[in-house]
Design goal:
The protein has 286 residues and is of the alpha/beta class. It has helices at 18-31, 57-71, 84-99, 118-126, 139-150, 170-177, 193-206, 214-233, 238-247, and strands at 11-13, 34-37, 50-52, 75-81, 103-110, 131-135, 159-162, 181-184, 249-252, 255-262, 268-271, 275-280, 283-285. It is 41% helix and 22% strand.
């Protein structure tokens, strides 16, 4: 709100998922300023000034679920952290699962900060799933994955997709996710020059040798899109920035002709590629 009331600030860029964006959107709406999110999640509120660079739940879920059903079987169990984003994600997943010829055999939620998933894992196992779709997030994602493996639920024969396979968590769960496939919008294994330049600069700046978090690159290329749109239109006001973002297209590692389109409710949906990466200790190879 402080930024929105500052005449020297023309746009807001930040937050991660759709639920946190829903807290910022009304403030940006009131100020008439563009608001861009960095990654993942459907907006909870209709907005003509919101520009989410992340994939929507459906853009992510469709290839995830179709691959799980085709590669492992139709019986899918869902597990998530207990707040609105995983529940919205599960609602979208259920509709897509039916179209893919699968069925939801279990749905479990645990409070953020859970350290003992034994009872949750037992209930998931009792449903005899072919695959687990997880939206357990944060440090809980690591705890759940490690315990699911320790209690015999997460075997090489069990399908596994979702947040715990994100590159952010790889160092802690490498033994359980290496070799698996994961749907992403960007991965450090992309061979295009812009991606490789970003990878080199990121590693030089951070000193990290681990797989690079997708959110880092998605935000970086989102900012590049924003700058190019504003510069191309010579936008000099909040209203002109909104118009510039809504009418611009750009080729980037996120895809050729990336752009925002407007859905039936007035929301902007970013049109970009979804990719399948194989997880390895050298990175996420697309």
């Amino acid at each position: 709100r402080r930024y929105s009331q500052d005449a020297s600030v023309d746009m807001l860029f930040g937050t991660i998922t759709g639920d946190t964006a829903s807290a910022v959107t009304p403030v940006a709406e009131q100020a008439g300023m563009a608001f861009a999110t960095a990654i993942l999640g459907d907006p909870s509120d209709c907005s003509t000034i919101a520009f989410p660079f992340g994939e929507t739940s459906r853009q992510l879920l469709k290839p995830q679920i179709e691959a799980l059903v085709a590669d492992y079987g139709p019986r899918i169990a869902f597990v998530g952290s207990d707040y609105n984003f995983p529940r919205d994600y599960a609602k979208a997943a259920t509709a897509i699962l039916g179209d893919a010829g699968g069925e939801l055999v279990a749905e479990e939620y645990s409070p953020l900060g859970t350290t003992d998933f034994e009872s949750t894992i037992a209930r998931l196992a009792a449903s005899q799933p072919d695959a687990i779709l997880s939206m357990v997030v944060g440090s809980d994602a690591v705890t759940f994955t490690q315990q699911a493996a320790a209690f015999g639920l997460l075997t090489p024969e069990m399908g596994f997709e979702g947040a715990p396979l994100d590159s952010d968590y790889y160092p802690a769960v490498a033994a359980h996710v290496t070799g698996r496939e994961h749907v992403v919008r960007w991965a450090d294994g992309l061979a295009d020059p812009q991606s490789q330049a970003f990878v080199a600069a990121y590693r030089q700046r951070t000193g990290s040798t681990a797989p690079i978090p997708e959110v880092a690159a998605n935000a970086y290329f989102g900012v590049k899109f924003t700058a190019a749109a504003i510069n191309s239109a010579k936008a000099a006001s909040r209203q002109e920035i909104v118009q510039a973002l809504g009418s611009f297209t750009l080729d980037s590692p996120l895809g050729d002709d990336t752009r925002f389109v407007t859905d039936g409710e007035g929301n902007h949906v970013f049109q970009a590629d979804m990719l399948t990466a194989t997880i390895g200790d050298g990175g996420y190879e697309v």
